[in-house]
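PROTEIN ENTRY
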Amino acid sequence: MAERDDNDIKIETTEAEENDIEDTDLEGEEERSTHKLKKLQEKLKICEKEKMTALEDLQRARADFLNARRRLDEEKLNDRERARLQHVEELLPLCDSFEMALNDRAFQELPDNLKKGVLGMNMQLSSILKGYGVEEFGMTGDKFDPEIHEAMAEDGDGNTVKSVLQRGYRLKDRIVRPAKVVVG
C-alpha cells in the first residue's frame, strides 16, 4: 500500500510489514488488556476481603445486639422479682400482726361481726401473698431444718419444732424469712 506523508513523498509498505505492525499493535493491546485484567482481579480480591470483613462485623454486631437484648430482658425479670420480694418483705410485719391478733385470747371475746372482719382482712392478705407465689412454712411438729428454720431456743433434746414464734415465708425457691422456732 502506498501512503503519503506531509511532503507528498510516497512511502510504500508491503503487506508483510503491515501485518507486523498489526501484530505489534495486537501484542500491545493484549499486554494492556492482561495488565487491566490483573488490576481488576486484584481489586476484586480486595473487595471480596472487605465484603467478608463487613459481613463478619455485621454478624458480630447482630450477636452483640441479641446478647444485649437478652441481658436486658433478664435484668427486667430480676428487677420485677426484686420489687416483688421487697413488697412481700414489707407485708410480713402485717402478717405477723394478724397472727398475733388471731392467737390472742381477747380476739375470742370480740363480737362475731368484728371477728369476721378481722378474719376477712387476714384472708385478703393471705390471698395477695399467694398471688405473688409466697408460701408460709414453719409448723409445730416439723423436723428442724437449719436452711429454713432459725432456732431461737431449745427445749430438751431432739430435732423437732416444738413451737413456732414467727412463721417463715418463701417466694418460689427463695427464703424470704426463716421461721423462728423453739426446738426440742
Summary: Strands lie at 2-4, 10-12, 134-137, 149-154, 161-166, 168-171, 174-177, 179-183. Residues 135-184 form a domain with the Nucleotide Exchange Factor Grpe; Chain A, domain 2 fold (CATH 2.30.22.10). The longest helix spans residues 15-103. The CA atoms of residues 75 and 81 lie 10 Å apart.
